[in-house]
Predict the structure.
Amino acid sequence: MLSVRLLSSPVLQVAVLLLLLVRAGPVSATPLTLQPLPGETLSETRPVISVAFPAQDRALSQSARLWVNGKEVTASSLRTPSFLSYQAPGEMPAGEVQVRFAARTSGEESIERTWTFRIQAVNRIAAVRHDARGELGQYDDLNVEMEAEPGGEAFFEIEDFREYLPMREVSAGLYRGTYEVRPGDYRLRASVIGHLRKGSSLSSQAAASPVSIFGHLFRVRVLEPANGSQVPLNFVIRGRTRPFARISVTPKIGFDEGMSAPTRDDPSSETGTIPGEADAEGYFTIRYGFPVKLPNMHLAITVVATDNEGNRSVPTILRLRF
């Protein structure tokens, strides 16, 4: 009971506090403001690291030095009469960051502070996906969609092939972008990676499946109608291929959804070949019509292009129903 009464005395409480401070080491009388705070966890990957001090001490501001993770960064820091501030030129890796500050006041007082904070990057992307179901050829579109935090700058890349392909926020938190395969493009099993930048923070995530691009393969891309769709008796075929290429459309009518695709010399293709020509950008339009509709009637169409040098494309097969 006596020890409790003694420690409850205000005089003894002050004495104990002074004893603890002495054991912890000398305490500078110069007030400092540290940023980030010791022990703080940040999602920002390029945080501003600074030490603020009294502006009236010229010697302190001139002698102030700063280290980050053991490397002195004083020369890369912003120095003013009241603070020393540093921001890394690029993103810092996640984990613990150690900071050390040292200076000397006009009264020859040595000041040193060492503290740590932590970077824990937040992935602001929920999902990245694309619509490629097989190999992409000339003029095919790779459509990429990303679900992420709204209001950011979004772009995607095809790994080791194309970078900074822009994406547009079509609704809150939903971004979309497209890459059209160019003649000569070639990349096998490349990851499609979406990126979202908010401020100085960059989040990245790859789609679940890679893509393979065969832009060197001469082919025709049919834009309309979609393969497998239902069409009226009179419709148009729109597509794209090499500029000024000659187009051959060979149709075949049947009642079997899985019937073989026609060729130019196929005797079962009674309607013959319909010619067309691509314009300066490779676009073409060909009209097709059939006089009568029969039950369960299907149409298989083979589309082939021939360029000015006589090279023939691989056939594009289109299966439709009336």
In short: Residues 10-24 form the longest helix (15 residues). The mean pLDDT is 86. The chain is about 10% helix and 45% strand. The CA atoms of residues 245 and 307 lie 4 Å apart.
